[in-house]
Design brief:
Blueprint lengths: L3 E9 L2 H10 L3 E13 L5 E6 L4 E11 L2 E11 L3 H10 L2 E14 L2 E8 L4 E9 L6 H14 L7 E2 L7
Antiparallel strand pairs: 1-5, 1-8, 1-9, 2-3, 2-6, 3-4, 4-5, 6-7, 7-8
Length: 167
């Protein structure tokens, strides 16, 4: 599979200031996605069905911590799964959790920025430097992610391990 990314996630106190910085960077606003993520039991990593107003997918992935950042290893990535794929997932795997959030999606080149707001009011940012065409080395993706973290003013003490299921 030609998909790899490096990811940073952090708690946010002020989404508006991040949005202003993104605007100054000439980011592209994709839209507001109302997402429900269903997590399923698997022997390694995370298996997730995402159903949203913009993004819909089934993904099986594992995040590996490399120093101060996480590299995503993707085993399965099905965009816009069919009803049959979703039914097979639900038949073959036990659901272990559900997360609902409103996600504002932005991009700057190949870097995707998510601003997430949960029903309880908690807010997070996720920065993903993504390569789906094998154009970037791991080190280049890592640096893109860390550079965006710096440009957006994300403090190290706000960083959290990725994965909302355990938040």
């Amino acid at each position: 599979m030609d998909y790899k990314d490096f990811t940073i996630k952090a708690k946010l106190k002020d989404i508006e200031s991040i949005e202003k910085r993104l605007s100054r960077m000439n980011s592209k606003y994709i839209g507001l996605d109302n997402q429900t993520d269903y997590y399923f039991e698997t022997s390694k990593g995370k298996l997730k069905l995402r159903q949203g107003t913009i993004e819909n997918l089934i993904t099986h992935y594992e995040r590996v911590i490399l120093d101060d950042i996480e590299k995503t290893i993707v085993y399965r990535y099905d965009k816009d799964p069919t009803v049959d794929q979703i039914n097979q997932l639900r038949i073959n795997y036990k659901q272990i959790g559900t997360i609902q959030k409103d996600r504002k999606i932005y991009t700057v080149d190949n870097v995707k920025i998510h601003l997430d707001r949960f029903r309880d009011g908690q807010c997070f940012i996720e920065i993903e430097a993504i390569d789906q065409t094998d154009n970037f080395t791991d080190n280049e993706l890592r640096e893109q992610c860390l550079t965006m973290k710096s440009r957006l003013g994300i403090a190290d003490n706000d960083l959290v391990r990725t994965g909302y299921l355990n938040k």
